[in-house]
Amino acid sequence: MSADQLIASLEQLGREFQHVIRPLADEQAIRAAQAQFLGKKGKVSEVMKELGRLPPADRPLVGAAVNRVKADIEEQVARRLRELADAAARADLARAVDVTLPARPVGGGHLHLLTQVRLEAVQIFSELGFVVAEGPQIETDWHTFEALGTPKDHPARDMQDTFYVSDEIVLRSHTSPVQIRTMQTQAPPIRIVAPGHVFRRDDDATHSPMFTQLEGLAVDEGISFTDLKGVLIHFVSRFFARDLTVRFRPSYFPFVEPGAEVDMQCSFCMGAPQGLPRAEDARPRSAAGERDRSPSGAGGACRLCKGTGWLEIGGAGMVDPVVFAAVNIDSERYTGFAFGMGLERMAMLRNGVDNIKFYYEGDIRFLEQF
Ligand code: PHE
Questions:
Q1: pLDDT digits over 290-325, tens only?
Q2: Gap from CA of 30 to ligand 1 centroid (Å)
Q3: Of 10, 16, 277, 352, which has the fewest beta carbons less than 10 angstroms from its beta carbon?
Q4: In the chain, what is the straight-line distance between the N-terminal and C-terminal CA atoms, in Å?
């Protein structure tokens, strides 16, 4: 090949490269095309092999043409890469981003239903002069049972099958040990409420091995059962925001005398249409199934109270002198009342929660309803 022909084919390579590079849209492909032309075995190198066969006088001209075509290809590469970068930057800017738009609202959190209920209950009792007291969840057998009139061989221990850490240490099965701790450290007059977790070997739709109770204790000169009744009536009426009454069913707890199960008037049907139950319906909890099949509990009866007109909410009674003796309070001078209720149950009754497990599962669909 003559020098002119070589120069012509070099210039042709430059033009060919224009066509090759035009459709390429990413840097990797562009670099590969560049290597096809300028690499060691590239098209320009192939042409340069012919250089040696030219008469020496012609070589500088052809060499200059080689340099020109190399520079041209490199320039095309740089330009194409710049074009791509510019296009990317323009596309970026063209995206409609309004930085002045207010942020999407993040759903506000709120207190868990049980926390709300606990705070409300404490609020209501605090208006009556009760202050909050606390005790440990891992408690001594003595505070949990013995000081509360329940020695180790007492049959009433079966009512609260609990978790033993050791012979003398238990997970408290009720908040009543807070009564003992309070009376050990404070002299009457005493008015406390003690909300807190308790633990029992129980597990079904309405019982959980861990749940929350609220204990109440008032000790002073001249405290009577009517004070207990008045406080509880006030509480349920405030908590359910309607006038409700309570009734007491004689019952046994080793630390109160007399002792009672507390029922509140059904907040759903208010005891209607059957009207408030007659005395013979006031049977203890074990007879609940029997009551359900009674005429007043048959079809059309209130789902919440099963037509009985009453809802069981807890236990209560007058502090037994045996308890005062354990904490050195003079039972000739002082009397007191105590009560305990389950807060999960209060929220179930008021907010229509029908499985106790919902409280603890953390399912957002449940939590956000309250
Ligand atoms: N501690 C009892 C229980 O958990 C409830 C109770 C408290 C009863 C205070 C009487 C007085 O079953």
A1: 444 333 444 578 888 888 999 999 999 999 999 999
A2: 83
A3: 352
A4: 91
Q: Could you tell me if 156 and 150 are in contact, meaning their C-beta atoms sit under 8 angstroms apart?
A: yes
Question: 158, 163, 174, 250: which is closest to 217 by C-alpha?
Answer: 174
Closest residue by Cα to atom 10, ligand 1, is 316
| Closest atom of ligand 1 to CA, residue 174 | 4
pLDDT at residue 134 is higher than 60 = yes
Q: Note the pTM of the prediction, 2 decimals.
A: 0.68
Which structure tokens are listed for 218? Answer: 């008032």
Q: State how far Cα 76 lies from the chain centre.
A: 62
8 A C-beta contact, residue 51 and residue 63? yes
- Helix boundaries (H) for 250-342: 288-292, 321-326
With a cut of 50, say whether residue 280 has pLDDT above it: no
Residue with tokens 């066509």: 19
CA of 70 to the centre of ligand 1 (A): 96
Q: How far is CA 33 from the centre of its chain?
A: 59
Burial 334-344 (b: 16+ CB within 10 A, else e): bbbbbbbbbbb
Looking only at the bridges linking them, the beta strands covering 190-199 and 131-132 are parallel
pLDDT of 164 strictly over 60: yes
- The answer to whether the CB of 221 falls within 8 A of the CB of 188 is yes
Q: Which residues contact 1 (CB under 8 A, 6 or more apart)?
A: 9, 50, 53
Nearest CA to ligand 1 atom 4: 174
302 φ, ψ (degrees, to nearest 5)? -55, 130
CB 212 within 8 A of CB 314: no
Tell me the per-residue pLDDT of 15-33, one tens digit each, with 9 for 90 and over.
999 999 999 999 999 999 9
Question: Do 62 and 70 contact (CB within 8 A), yes or no?
Answer: no
Q: What are phi and psi of 340, to 5 degrees?
A: -145, 135
| Pocket test residue of 139, 160, 176, 339 for ligand 1, highest count of atoms within 8 A of CB | 176
Length of the chain: 370
